[in-house]
Amino acid sequence: MAAIGVHRPWYSAGIREWIFTTDHKKIAVFYGVTTLLFFLVAGLMALGIRLELWEPGLQFMSAETYNYLLTAHGVVMLLWWAIGVWSAFANFLIPLMIGARDVAFPRLNALSWWTFFAASVLVLLTLVPSNHIRMMWTGYPPFSLNDDAGTTALYVFIVHLVGASSIMGAVNFITTTLRMRAPGVTLKNMNLILHGIMAANVIQLLGVPSFAGAVTMLFLDKYLGTNFFNPNLGGDPLIYENVFWFYSHPAVYVMILPAFGVFSEVIATFSRKLIFGQITMVFAIWAIALLGFMVWVHHLFTSGIPDWVRIIFSYTTVLIGVPTGIKIFNWVATLYKGSIRYTTPMLFTLGGIFMFLIGGLTGIPLALPAFDINAQDSQFVVAHFHYVLGMATTLGAFSGIYYWFPKLTGKMYNEKLGKLSFWIIMIGSNLFYFFQFIIGLEGMPRRYADYPPIPEFIQLQHIQTVGAFILAVGILLSLINWIVSAVKGKEAGSNPWGSNSLEWQIPSPPPPHNFDRIPELPAGWDPYDYAHHKPQHT
């Protein structure tokens, strides 16, 4: 008798199998749940900061607690959310999009998450008052070497664990993408999000050791008596800034390049068009990754570096806007005369591009020393990177979650609630961050727990705080949408968007082994070609 095939979802497993799993889909869920939980924790810290800034003076917390909230908010939002969330996407999507049954090194993949989990436990330990870290996420000496900075060792160990997790993931994702593609999937025609993820992981491989080296020197200076950063004994704090930013500015592109990939997937699907200038988009992604290592000194324009160095890095910083501009132009050209559907993922993608455009345009004057010297360490800079990283990355991640939600769960989300969430997020975030530009230009410095009772400052702080709480409501609506829809949503079918991409050609949710047979794609196949290759549609 022939056995009857029964579709078994990837998540149908006992607790033991989940704990010891090496399935890339389960590990993707581990990453996704962890990053979302820490995103919420960091968001609550941000609301605490905004409440403290409602009025001049210290209302709700001490200056030390305020510094802790700023530090923890920065570390968690950047390392756990803006970088960590893409590990969830990479784990889930790479094998499905290239026609593989798993990643190249499944056990290393599991170890990567467990290392990330260990770092997460250490972050939770910082909630204990005696373990507060108060040196900001950058950890600049000499302050980070003082007792007032808190437990520097804990900061160093957290960075090392997250860095080790990132390197393990990068090795896995790059190897999987290069060596495990199905016949017909080439570097030329594979999904643009895969190029974005791979470029981000190349940056991780090259840059994370620099970050780890910087914090290791901090540890040695504070606890073992070395003097890398002590100018009285031949050291120099600028060594730290250079080594730190050599990674930490390229890390910006670790956060945004995968979001650019999401934008490309969603725009192609919901405009039913081939990506305009697809090859130039690939070159733009890799140009951004390369140029990202050539701009770090713009963070040091006010630190006494020679003028000729300022000029060189001003040029390179402006130059990186060229491949970014190419991408935005190509997205707009793809939308031109497309059969556009304004679904929730499409709205979040368009919102993400809009927010990145504002952040990018305000980054151009910051690349010019004459402007940057006046705006440095003001809230103008905070507004700039919250538009670029805070909102463009978050909207990209939310767009991706909504877009692949049917594939992950087999259920459809609530479209009305998703759109309502988007509009509330856009209103709240622009009230918050746009007025931060204004107060920054008016002279409000960043990182201050108190400020003079200037009427204009008080009014602008009120607007920002109201915007922050509106933003929080919008984010909460999306979280509710995902949780409720995962349990009670309508059945999605295998390909609700009618996409050509490989992950949509298998059942939703995917079976544990992904593909019954490794696909062999016809000549000329393209995941975005809706004119010549009709997708399987349910």
Automatic annotation (TrEMBL):
Topology in the lipid bilayer is annotated as:
Multi-pass membrane protein
**Does this entry carry the keyword Transport?**
yes
Q: List the InterPro entries.
A: Cyt_c_oxase-like_su1_dom, Cyt_c_oxase-like_su1_sf, Cyt_C_Oxase_1, Cyt_c_Oxase_su1_BS
Question: Could you tell me which residue ranges the Cytochrome oxidase subunit I profile domain spans?
Answer: 18-522
Q: Which residues form a coiled coil?
A: none
State one molecular function term (GO): cytochrome-c oxidase activity
Where is this protein localized, as stated in its record? Membrane
Q: Which UniProt keywords apply?
A: Electron transport, Heme, Iron, Membrane, Metal-binding, Respiratory chain, Transmembrane, Transmembrane helix, Transport
Q: Cellular component per GO?
A: membrane
Q: Where are the transmembrane segments?
A: 28-49, 69-98, 110-133, 153-175, 196-220, 244-263, 275-296, 308-326, 347-368, 380-405, 417-441, 461-484
Q: Is Endoplasmic reticulum tagged as a keyword?
A: no
Signal sequence region? none
Task: Name the Gene Ontology biological process terms.
Answer: aerobic respiration; electron transport coupled proton transport; respiratory electron transport chain
Instruction: Name the protein family.
Output: Belongs to the heme-copper respiratory oxidase family.
Name of the protein in its database record:
Cytochrome c oxidase subunit I
| Natural source organism | Hydrogenobacter thermophilus (strain DSM 6534 / IAM 12695 / TK-6)
Write the gene name.
coxA3
